[in-house]
Amino acid sequence: MATPAAQQRVAVVTGASSGIGEATAKTLAGLGFHVVCVARRADRIEAVARELGGTAIVADVTDDAAVEALADQLDRVDVLVNNAGGAKGLEPVADADLDNWRWMFETNVLGTLRVTRALLPKLIASGDGLIVTLTSIAAFETYDGGSGYTAAKHGQGALHRTLRGELLGKPVRLTEVAPGAVETEFSLVRFDGDQERADNVYRGITPLVAQDVAEVIGFVASRPSHVDLDVIVMRPRDQAPWGRWNRRAD
Ligand code: 8X3
């Protein structure tokens, strides 16, 4: 791995190959962190890491051995951004696709658990650690067709929030960032590559973009160490609780 400068703080960002993860990696690098970009797509994270002067580590958060190997390669971790995750499908409960549910629990819930558990000793040892977990407004709301995703995001949020008590007295801050609609590859993944269906999600609204979320994470990571921003819910002005949009005619 590229070596961080002496005393340089290290931030690990999962899902750093695109969208919120990539934008966050760039923002944190701009704040002076050595950023470790983690994702499955080697070519993408290598390009991102090269641009930042950071390190690319190819790892799938659903793979125990890969996450252990990730932890073994890191001497120091000051910030962890649990960003890897996503949605698959929009079926009602009556037609739920169990494979989609498994994928969503594996990536959002167990992925966050694996990476957090593996890096926790180093975050504590840093003396001023920070864990930022990207959940979603789906961690607080439910909506028709969204049960698998909202269940996974509620689970991921519960895991993250539990740490607030378990780590009390340890030098680690915890921030949950819960965005609404952000135009990234999110909907393309959810609809299995169906571009038209993905575009329809954002039709007639002004969604958030990845940079909007990255800037908030940069703000969180640059507060003094006694300040813990606990939960940040952010959504486009055009989005009320899920399913209610201010859509303008095209
Ligand atoms: C995704 C939030 O509003 O696009 O986490 O479903 S939304």
UniProtKB/TrEMBL annotation:
Keywords: Oxidoreductase. SUPFAM superfamilies: NAD(P)-binding Rossmann-fold domains. PANTHER family: ALCOHOL DEHYDROGENASE. Belongs to the short-chain dehydrogenases/reductases (SDR) family. This is SDR family oxidoreductase. It comes from Mycolicibacterium arenosum.
